[in-house]
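Lecture 7 notes: from sequence to structure.
We start with the chain below.
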Amino acid sequence: MGHPDSSPPPSPAPTVRDLRIDAAKGIAILLVVIGHARGVPGTLVLLAYSFCVPLFFFLSGWLGRRGRDRPPGQALAAMSRTLLVPYACFFLLAYAYWLLTRHVGEKAARWGDLPWWDPFTGFLTGIGPDLYVQPALWFLPALFTTAMAWLLLARRLRPGMIALLCLPLALLWIAVFPPTRLRLPFGLDVLPVALFFYACGAFASTTLPLPRTIGRGLAGAALLAAPWLWLAWSNGRVDVNQLRFGASGLAFILAALCGTGVVLMASPLAARSAALCWIGRNSLLILCTHFLVFFVLSGVASLAGLFAHDARPGLAWALSISAIAVAACVPMRAVLVRHAPWALGLRTPARPPATAVA
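Predicted structure tokens for the same chain:
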């Protein structure tokens, strides 16, 4: 028998999942999906893009602060498993579809003459415009680079200090770098901006608690909605992937923070929707597959002649294909969790030991 004091320590209590964060992620990914759909009015895209990508970096920092004490090697392995493995898997899936359909319909004019290996340039660099087989995948290497940079800085600096230092750097970067028309691999060209929002999320997670009641949350959202709308509208079109930040870097950052605040304040109400929370928990899968669903549906519609002559898809089409893209993730997740959990960044469950048969 062992010493009475040698019993193993009790297991730590499991972390309680905050449904408000799930709901906020659900809102963010829905805005991304709808914003990518053909037929969405430009006004809706302008407002959604003013904050939806910064919101994702913010929420990633909110959740990522827990791992700042992990050894760098362990953090690198975890980030590779949860971000880079899905990046590779869903790129290959999109590449296979592109390879099979690039000579069909309007795709032949755009991609028919490209060599079969051309998409791998985008895969190796992670540069958004080069990832034409699956444009949304740019976010995964960008988040990987941002999270690793934050983990290295967080070993020496507090999140608030990182955010404070990154703010002038981000403003300077927005003013100086996009006019050069250069692109850097694996999200390095958006790192100063992404790192600011990531650090803001990490800082806010310990200092700015989310509202616990729907009434307080909606009151806070109402206060932030007016400045967000004014800033977003006056600043103009934003597209972080394309290094477009509107007329003013400061207006972009303020609009993104206000828009993020609106979503977080509304999160107690949004968390009452089980469907929205599910969407938030599966935002990675939705991010990595919605363009592929769009490509398939657009190809079918084109072959069926739905948009012949001068007809263009409208809002009804955009909302319909967005709903289909999200709904398609229900069976896709069931299949992947059972047969390829690593494609979603999940650990493969250990198999029970074989039982000897007498």
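Points to note: The CA atoms of residues 228 and 255 lie 5 Å apart. The longest helix spans residues 72-101.
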